[in-house]
Write a structure and sequence with these properties.
The chain is mainly beta. It contains eleven helices and 56 strands. It is globular, with a radius of gyration of 31 Å. Pfam families: Bgal_small_N (PF02929), Glyco_hydro_2_C (PF02836), Glyco_hydro_2_N (PF02837), LacZ_4 (PF16353).
């Protein structure tokens, strides 16, 4: 609806002309008044036609009737407030728009929130020449604002800051601020990020007193000359002169009488800011009426040829994509929660984050400066839904949207320009390409030459500075960074050559959805192999699940569809390294191992220690070793490290004790641990751990001697299946090939290695090859039937032959299950042989046993790999040792029930009265998992609370499992980690 002063919702302009020019977020001594708190609120399901001839709705005037209004906290999303059920609900979409693609229009059914609050202006705000600004840090998606009944202006740009000068509208004493927030507006077409749509005033609202003779804006960039180690402070100040700049710690004090005096300040030798050494210096910028205090760091970002350098050294991003998401608050900032997340990143060797796909709360960046994280700061822009119509009318290329896009990038850069942690500006995400993006890039190049520009969608590299890709295969990385073996993604040879001359960065890779991703170590190896490759950012940091409840009060974390959305993208929003309830997934431990800043290599009695850091020696770490025999420590010590400069190695002799001859299976484990407290971890924090088998270990051989006597303690049924062991009901085994599909098994982001493998050169979206789980299901692997072929019993053996096949299938596996009674217990040898023409991989090859639910309360102890689950392509964090856990701690509550808990290489399992050991055959031992549900039950539940009541515990003893891969949005399991149909045998002992 069109109203004077307030453009219609379909207006492509970013806001009214009354908005002030964007500027840096500053901490100054000028007074501020927070307008956060409880506001009056009402929600209209559609844009109400209640404005008067001046465009003013009734509630904007003092004395309006507030009957029927509720109260709402600011900041909050109205769909996530306590009264959620009374209001509209969250919507999750990835690419598609939840409204018709009819730009720039939005439907009439446009949830509209009216907000209102009174506030009293402190006297200092209305004194003398003081001016007053009203600032909004984030409102989704459009706000119209009135003060004391007078129009202030309107704005869009949900995750961007807006300021108005309201001096002339304020009155002494009580004032009325009224804001109408529309969930949808033309700007919604620019905000199609893969996240929840969460309307409301979700960041701070503040009144700022602007003293006469104050500072309107201050830009401070600390440069470092890597050759001399000397710093230079580049300050740009808009305000009243004289202006004095001070860095007390460096003895710097410089006063400028007027703008003509402003010049870079040489500050002499300084400590560099890096993610490994986040050294900050306090800087004061003082005008006669206002003092700003900043914390700056000195570093130089440069692109030299195809290298991305910081302080003259190549930078490797070991980063994560980070959305702002909180299980209860959505995108509302919770400092303690954010700090915990950033500290968790640091403790897992993450050194960078991309603010996908919008600027975060400003304070997040101060935390990155302080904790040490390189930041790719991304603008609030995504128009992915236009992909559905081949980018027709895409705002990124339509001059009608030019102003809106330039407005977005200037608000992004101006707010955060002072952060030393930011090393790349990103124009946005998945918005196709076009002239408006090119103009945004040109604007950034001009405004801030100290940092390069990133945008993945600039495929041919015509306006950005690094070659960025998402989800490339390993083959593509080699071809981009090494010898060219395939065409460059979607571009011709000339543009391809340009891109191949640039630093290469993966803005997204390794899709951490559900159990996975696999192949993190393979990607790391590729990154390490090529100088041009500067690492990348895992997709993504957290699951975005929203805490909610079933009608009977069971808590769960909602994903797309759980709020009854008309269109949605289901579980694709649950693809994080950290689960919605803040639990780190095993993938995070895997990542920490793969990204460890220290690598060990053992060659006989010599240990090579490599410093994989970019900027810091290892003098803050101590290297320890532990020798274990059969999982028990027999000796340990520390090694004295000489200086190990970044990127170099040393080789040390091992102390004699480390290799002392002992009986049993021996492992040497090396750790690197911090000697001092860091702000993100206390002393003793282990940054690297690697384990090596000790050559010459003697693995105990199980008894081959038949026991006298019989099967008195084992009971079998007529079909030769075990029914009980020493009075404990144990049913099984059943041969099982099925696992509850992981998200990577279910989806088909890229082509499959199982079939023609055609999608892999182009990286994404080849749906012609079915997802693994579909293929497995077509072949009936989830519904195997068993037919006993024969049962032979003798004095010391029970031999059962079984044929396992699916309905309507002509292929299957034959197994011979032989039970024998020996000195050390009841042995089971299982020989499994496939027959027929198999044409798919197997999810697993295992034996299932059902155990009584009464065992569930007993702690589970095992000697084998741990502490977490691991799979063929995700095993860097696993070590062999002795572990104990509760039953439910053995599996991970991924957003949707799926395969979890596989721990290969089991030696012994002790669980209540059950003692099970494995026998190595050709050096291989099976793994185990324990769950209250069968793989089939886990396969069909969308959420954990949908699982049936369980009356047993399922023990799976797996010869092997298929790898994990990353195919939910990336490459399939690599052939070397795939489980191909095979004949095999395994042996276990019940003791
Ligand atoms: C990328 C996109 C992300 C996310 C991811 C899949 O294409 O940039 O926002 O959607 O795919 O989870």
């Amino acid at each position: 609806m069109s109203t004077p002063g307030f453009a219609p919702l379909s207006d492509r302009a970013p806001g009214s002309d009354t908005r002030l020019a964007p500027r840096a977020r500053l901490r100054t001594d000028a007074p501020v008044l927070s307008l956060n708190g409880d506001w009056d609120f009402r929600l209209h399901p559609a844009d109400p036609a209640d404005r008067d001839t001046d465009g003013r709705p009734d509630f904007a005037t003092p004395g309006a009737d507030l009957t029927g209004w509720a109260s709402i906290p600011v900041p909050a999303h109205w769909v996530l407030t306590e009264a959620t059920e009374r209001y509209s609900r969250p919507i999750y979409t990835n690419i598609q728009y939840p409204f018709p693609l009819d730009p720039p229009h939005v439907p009439d059914a446009n949830p509209t929130g009216d907000y209102r609050r009174m506030f009293t202006v402190p006297a200092e705000f209305v004194a003398g020449d003081t001016r007053v600004r009203l600032r909004f840090d984030g409102v989704e998606s459009r706000a119209d604002v009135w003060l004391n009944g007078h129009p202030v202006g309107w704005f869009t740009g949900s995750r961007l800051t807006t300021e108005f000068d309201v001096t002339d509208l304020l009155v002494e004493g009580d004032n009325l601020l009224a804001v109408r927030v529309h969930q949808w507006s033309a700007a919604s077409y620019l905000e199609d990020q893969d996240q929840w749509w969460l309307p409301g005033i979700f960041r701070d609202v503040t009144l700022l007193a602007r003293p006469a003779a104050g500072l309107d804006n201050v830009t401070v960039i600390g440069d470092l000359d890597p050759a001399s180690g000397h710093g230079e402070l580049r300050v740009d100040a808009v305000g009243s002169f004289p202006i004095t700049v001070r860095i007390p710690e460096l003895g710097v004090e410089e006063t400028w009488a007027g703008p003509a005096d402003v010049a870079p300040i040489a500050v002499g030798p300084v400590d560099a800011w890096t993610s490994e050494t986040p050294r900050l210096y306090d800087v004061q910028v003082a005008a006669p009426g206002e003092i700003a205090t900043l914390r700056t760091g000195f570093r130089r970002v440069e692109i030299v040829g195809d290298r991305f350098l910081v302080n003259g050294r190549p930078l490797t991003f070991r980063g994560v994509n980070r959305h702002e998401t909180h299980p209860d608050l959505g995108r509302v900032f919770d400092e303690a929660h954010v700090r915990r997340d950033l500290e968790l990143m640091k403790r897992h060797n993450v050194n960078a984050l991309r603010t996908s796909h919008q600027p975060p709360h400003w304070r997040t960046l101060e935390l990155c400066d302080e904790l040490g994280l390189w930041v790719v700061l991304e603008c609030d822009l995504e128009t992915h839904g236009f992909w559905e119509v081949d980018w027709r009318d895409n705002p990124a290329d339509d001059p009608q949207w030019r102003e809106a896009l330039l407005d977005r990038i200037s608000r992004t850069v101006e707010r955060d320009v002072n952060h030393p942690s930011i090393v790349l500006w990103s124009l946005g995400n998945e918005s196709g390409t076009g002239r408006n993006l090119a103009e945004m890039a040109a604007w950034v190049h001009d405004r801030d030459p100290s940092r390069p520009v990133h945008y993945e969608g600039d495929y041919d590299g015509s306006y950005t500075d690094v070659y960025s890709r998402m989800y490339p295969t390993l083959e593509e990385i080699s071809s981009i960074c090494g010898e060219q073996t395939m065409a460059v993604h979607e571009i011709g040879p000339a543009a391809g050559a340009r891109q191949r001359s640039r630093p290469f960065v993966m803005c997204e890779y390794a899709h951490a959805m559900g159990n996975g991703p696999g192949s993190l170590a393979d990607y790391e190896e590729a990154i390490d192999t090529f100088d041009r490759s500067h690492g990348g950012f895992i997709w993504e940091w957290r699951d975005h699940g929203l805490r909610t409840h079933t009608p009977d009060g069971t808590e769960f974390f909602a994903y797309g569809g759980d709020f009854g959305e008309v269109v949605h993208d289901g579980i694709f929003i649950m693809d994080g390294l950290v689960l919605s309830d803040d639990t780190p997934s095993p993938a995070l431990a895997e990542l920490a191992a793969v990204w460890a800043p220290v690598r060990f290599a053992l060659d006989g009695d010599r240990l090579t220690v490599t410093n994989r850091r970019g900027f810091r020696a290892l003098d803050d770490l101590t290297v320890g070793w532990t020798l274990e025999s059969d999982g028990r420590t027999v000796d340990s010590g520390e090694l004295v490290l000489p200086d190990v400069a970044p990127g170099t190695s040393v080789t040390l002799p091992l102390p004699a004790g480390a290799l002392a001859v002992e009986s049993g299976e021996r492992f040497l484990t090396f750790t690197a641990a911090s000697t001092e407290d860091e702000s993100w971890a206390s002393a003793g924090h282990v940054v690297a751990r690697q384990q090596f088998p000790v050559a010459g270990s003697r693995v105990p051989v199980p008894s081959r001697r038949s026991a006298a006597g019989s099967f008195a303690d084992a009971e079998f049924d007529r079909a030769g299946s075990l029914v009980s062991w020493r009075g404990l009901p144990v049913a099984g085994p059943l041969v099982e090939l099925w696992r509850a599909p992981t998200e990577n098994d279910r989806l088909d982001g890229q082509g499959s290695y199982e079939t023609a493998y055609p999608g892999l050169t182009h990286g994404r979206g080849d749906e012609s090859t079915p997802a693994s789980a579909d293929r497995w299901r077509e072949r009936g692997l989830h519904r195997l039937t068993h037919r006993t072929l024969s049962v032979e019993r003798s004095g010391d053996a029970v031999v059962r032959r079984v044929r396992t096949m699916a309905a309507n299938a002509a292929v299957g596996v034959d197994s011979i299950l032989t039970w024998t009674r020996r000195d050390d217990g009841l042995h089971l040898r299982a020989v499994v042989v496939p027959f027929g023409t198999w044409d798919c991989t197997w999810p697993r090859l295992g034996l299932r046993f059902d155990l009584p639910a009464s065992l569930a309360a007993e702690p589970v102890s095992w000697f084998g790999t741990g502490p977490d689950e691991s799979y063929a392509d995700s095993a860097s964090a696993a070590v062999v040792g002795r572990f104990t856990a509760g039953l439910d701690e053995l599996t991970v509550r991924y957003a949707r029930p799926q395969e979890s808990g596989h721990r290969p290489g089991l030696r012994e399992l002790d669980w209540g009265p059950l003692h099970l050991a494995t026998v190595p055959l050709q050096g291989h031992r099976p793994g185990f998992s324990l769950s209250r549900w069968t793989p089939q039950e886990l396969s069909v539940a969308g959420h954990h609370h949908e699982l049936p009541d369980s009356d047993r515990v399922v023990l799976m003893v797996d010869h092997a499992q298929h790898g994990l891969g990353s195919r939910a949005c990336g490459p399939d399991v690599l052939p070397r980690y795939a489980l191909w149909p095979q004949a095999t045998d395994l042996e276990i002992v019940l003791r």
